Amino acid sequence: MAVLTGAGSRALYTMTFPLMGGEAVIRFVEGRGQARAEQAGRAAVREARRIEAKYSRYAAQSVVSEINARAGRGPVPVDDETAFLIQSALDLGTWTGGRFDPTVGVLRKAWDFRKARVPSRGELDALLPLVDARSVVLCHGAVELLREGMELDLGGVGKEYAVDRATERLREAGVESAVVNFLGDVRTLGCRGDGQPWVVGVQDPRDRARCRFSIRVGTGAGVATSGDYERGFELAGVRYHHLLDATTGYPARGLASVTVVAPTAFAAGQLSTAAFLLGPEEGLRLLAERSGVEGALVTESGAVLATPGMARISSLAC
Amino acid sequence: MAGAGLLSGRMLQAQSSVELRYLFYGESDGRTQVQNPNLLLHQDLGAALGQFDLMLSHDTVSGASPTGGYPTLAVTTTTSASGNRSTSASGQIPMVLYSDQRNGQSLGYSRRIGAHLPRIDLSHSVEKDYIARGFGLSDAWTMAGGRGTLHYGLSWDNDTVAPVTSLLRFPKRSRGFALGWTWILGEDDLVDVSLSRTKLEGDLNEPYLIVPVGTGTVPERRPGTRTRDALLVKQGHYFDDWDGALKTTYRFYTDDWGLRAHTLEFDYDQHLDDGWILSPELRFYTQNAASFYGAYFTTPQKFLSADYRLSAFHSIQVGCALSTELMEGLTLRLGGTYQIQQGSHPLTPMAVAPTAGSLPVFSGPGTSAADVNATTFSVGLKWQY
Fold first, then answer.
1. Which residues of A210-225 are buried (b: 16+ CB within 10 A; e: fewer)?
2. Chains A and B: how many Cβ contacts under 8 Å?
3. Could you tell me the CATH superfamily of domain B17-75+89-384?
4. Which of A29, A247, B55, B367 is deepest in the core (most CB within 10 A)?
């Protein structure tokens, strides 16, 4: 834990740790001394790691691995937290008309973004029957994947959930001012230590070194971005990325990134994913219809579309 | 004669060794971390066949590295699509996360011919975005009844830079020459003076680094050639009374990029009871900045770089190693170092980013990408047979 600045007894603490294959950063202002700060920080890190271990598809002992191992062979009892996350992922599928699907992960058998190879239609068609949210049955405290070979992936909602839960741990530990960033998904608590709003830069999807614009987040909110630029490759001028449209098996087209501000990181993450998969027009409409939500969409051509309220809280001149 | 033959055989066998080493290098604040296990084999085949060395190494590199971007107070944190990327916090040096693996092999062969010990070296290593191939020829010519040795050599490197962000491959070549003289003075002193010149050409840019220019950033641009010169002076002294040896090394380095560096190092070996050797070390280093280094440029220049390794900084390193013979021929060595490095010109974070019509405003406590501390830990097991 690094203490970056101090003003009287209040200090800004920063904790950085690896999480979900990337970097997690927790920054918070604490005025009750280093021991209390470390206690609060450790509680947040513990919570993040608990969620990672529980829902990672890479961990053999995770709930998700257990559900996948039982695919086609009967239901698996789940607790309320898991049921909530699975239901949220299914809801996201409903919002997007099936373009998001919590079982889309099986397409990774055809898409290997590190090898920069576009799978054939036949390869995808062979896998698409296993991408079917309707075959995920959640009832009476149990979940069942009806077909053998299906794979549930809660990565689409789990990371933002971890951001919110870690922030909640900080709040429970008495922290009033914090910003939590797990691999680009952000949740703030209160205002910055100097009373000013937190300023969240939005990554330029086509220039890794720049922020495209910034957002002022006053009294706590979630900010999440979905984009085509982190996991993918470019071939013959076409960008292929990991945000796959479950109805076609191919990457969603039209947008380079979507950033959403919502009351929680969880909601912001769900909406940014949904808007990205829906494309510029439908995506913007989805965000504009939600109260307490603002969003900005950067199209593949570089144009920015934003909800009416975005101009008030960002550096965008909409 | 049989006795002499046995003795000769034992002496030759005692030259050969196999060593397993593990080195850990870790920088502060989550920056670069390297784990490097390697295997070294030195095989003496006898006077007629010579001796060869084989080294196999595997590096695992991970952590965060400065991008060259300027620290700014304008943004607290950054939202982005999930990926293997770092976020830049307010006032901090922008970093990017990275990881890589490097597999290296080198082979050397030498054979004494009269007063000469010619040697040939081959090396090869592969990492995700870099392939290195090296070739060297050298000779050590013993004179003055064994009290002086003239050593000289040539080296050729032919590398390929293959940035993961590009489909293009860029060549990078170097040619080197070294000349030195080692002189044994009396019973307890040894002096070595050597000079080297290395000329590099090709793509010498760091492909992932950026440079803040005006209101934006550009990739760094370094000259396509670099001539590096170094002078090395070593002096060793054995203290009879203490049964200890002190090695003092001074190195002066200069190149045509305007960089000059001085290194002063003291290594001491103290023999203790029961065969233990305690080896403390102390090292000072300082360098000035390359002529085209800058943390921020208002207008573009022909050559520019914001790489902190080309900036002015200084460091101090302390270390200690302990070795002992576990059984006849088997030696264990444990060592560690700690280095404190500070940039000579801390950067003041940018409070207000520049726009087309205005210059940036700087504010807040200074920070430098060169401010980094490093710890190493090594363990080695050597079997001589």
1. bbbbbbbbeebbbbbb
2. 115
3. monomeric porin ompg (2.40.160.40)
4. A29
